């Protein structure tokens, strides 16, 4: 008997705090390399820009089969609704380019503690293409950004 997907468990007990900084990871459906195409990856970046009024992007990286997003929520913003909005906008932008779901259900988040070094976390996020062996220099990877640049 096949096991039921357990992405719904990621939502159990989740709450978000205004002005808090979160590291979010979302994975493409069945780990498909949806964002291998630069222009399809840019659709995620455009979705981030669309929620800037309630979720300030500190840095992000779009990997071929997942994303990492370091985000600070604004007053009264809810993390789950912001991630849902970004995923929805990305999916709508990809209509016509692919058939089927773009994202796996749920997402992983980590609320940064005060003692965590924000720039170190950001460096970790944007260095993902290096660790994955996609490039030997970040200058060669187009789908990342950080506010400190």
TrEMBL record:
<protein>
    <submittedName>
        <fullName>Transposase</fullName>
    </submittedName>
</protein>
<feature type="domain" description="Transposase IS200-like">
    <location>
        <begin position="17"/>
        <end position="128"/>
    </location>
</feature>
<dbReference type="InterPro" id="IPR036515">
    <property type="entry name" value="Transposase_17_sf"/>
</dbReference>
<dbReference type="Pfam" id="PF01797">
    <property type="entry name" value="Y1_Tnp"/>
</dbReference>
<dbReference type="InterPro" id="IPR052715">
    <property type="entry name" value="RAYT_transposase"/>
</dbReference>
<dbReference type="InterPro" id="IPR002686">
    <property type="entry name" value="Transposase_17"/>
</dbReference>
């Amino acid at each position: 008997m096949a096991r039921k997907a357990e992405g719904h468990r990621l939502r159990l007990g989740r709450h978000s705090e205004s002005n808090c900084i979160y590291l979010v990871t979302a994975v493409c459906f069945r780990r498909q390399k949806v964002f291998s195409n630069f222009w399809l990856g840019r659709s995620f970046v455009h979705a981030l820009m669309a929620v800037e009024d309630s979720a300030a992007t500190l840095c992000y990286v779009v990997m071929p089969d997942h994303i990492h997003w370091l985000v600070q929520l604004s007053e009264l913003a809810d993390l789950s609704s912001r991630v849902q909005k970004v995923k929805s906008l990305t999916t709508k932008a990809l209509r016509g380019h692919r058939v089927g779901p773009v994202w796996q259900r749920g997402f992983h988040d980590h609320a940064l503690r005060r003692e965590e070094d924000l720039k170190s976390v950001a460096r970790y996020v944007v260095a993902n293409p290096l660790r994955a062996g996609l490039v030997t220099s970040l200058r060669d990877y187009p789908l990342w950004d950080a506010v400190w640049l």
